[in-house]
């Protein structure tokens, strides 16, 4: 019984995969008057903080221009959301003699086990509207193909 209790409270030593962040930090510059308006709205309780105001304003603009976004996504053949590019899919493309043109609106991730050589051999172009997560070596190898 004691051994079972010790096993239950013993910390786990297995590696937990690192969680990908679900947002990215940006920096903006606002004029003093605009910032004052934001702070006033926060002080009045309409928003919990400046970031809440900015996120809401961005979402409102995205919603306001949703038709333009939908048309552009369809015209440009862009994938919405998350696109994970793994080693197996790049090796398959290379084996078939194809080069991939990847377009993502959201987050594109390139697996950590993808080598710079494999990325260059299989990716013709990479157009990411949002964020790209890849090793520095893969980013450097694809620098001339990033848009």
TrEMBL record:
InterPro entries named in the record: Arc_rbn_hlx_hlx (IPR013321), RHH_8 (IPR041088), Ribbon_hlx_hlx (IPR010985)
Pfam families, A to Z: RHH_8
Protein name, per record: CopG family transcriptional regulator
Organism in which the protein naturally occurs: Methylobacterium cerastii
High-level lineage: Bacteria, Pseudomonadati, Pseudomonadota, Alphaproteobacteria, Hyphomicrobiales
